[in-house]
## 1
Amino acid sequence: MTVRIGVQLWAGGTPDYRTWRQAVVHAEQLGADAIFGYDHFHKPFVDIVDGVPQLHDEQPEVNNFEGWTALASWGEITRRAEIGLLVSGMPYRNPDLVADMARTVDHISGGRLILGLGAGWYPQDFIAYGYEYGTVRSRMDQFDEGLQRIEYRLEHLTPKPLRPIPVEPRSGCWSAVCRTATPTLSPTWHAPSITSAAGG
């Protein structure tokens, strides 16, 4: 089995968009096989304890940029690495629209998109942008339904994606009520947090 290496570059806290953009270009130059952003509207300040994010009491406002808009540009500025978000929050967008967005970015990138999908977990994303936070179970129900709609829409778009888009469901749920989502899955492992010497 071939091991491939991906990196996740958070927009939260970057000095400006150009710095974040250059980090993407540099990651590909260093040989990263996949480059991911995130789908948070505000940077979560967390510690990872036993694989579970523990939010800090203070959640300050810092520079941040929207992930899907940036992802389209990544398709133009990279040439080899696969690209995606870890992960796109299902409650934030119509699932059929997400499928269309994914197909479009797949074409922009020449068939290099990985579609990471999740149920959403960070309350600030929901509250600040007017989405219903609900319960873990309601978000998981929405996730399961949305995943089925995305899979259906990807098969019925014209034109279709350039390749069968790898779909990586990651529920964003650590509760006992979580269920296994429909598996049309990418065989990837997402390390929860690795902090660089620079504090990124």
Note: Strands lie at 6-8, 34-37, 46-49, 52-55, 82-85, 88-89, 113-118, 167-169.
## 2
Amino acid sequence: MEAPDLEANASSSGKFDAGKHLRSAVWYFFTRSTEVVGTSKCTICSDVVKHANNTSNLLKDLKLKQPAQHKEAENQRKKEEKKASKRRKTADNLR
């Protein structure tokens, strides 16, 4: 299965258009399980991964099993981090 194009899903505001803003790009590769609380299913290989309502285990699983998609998610995280930093600097300058 081909990974989703993260850039194609971004709106002009830099947020992803998926109903609401996803705080981590890892959610483009996992879906939350409705059967077992605290687990998510990889949309690439269908593995089920346990998580404690955070993305650490999901990112580790992605890094080990899908390195190209992990790199894509990390690049998106870095872009979002830079945008947030710029917004904070702008807000600080307005004070």
Note: Confidence is low (pLDDT under 50) at residues 1-19.
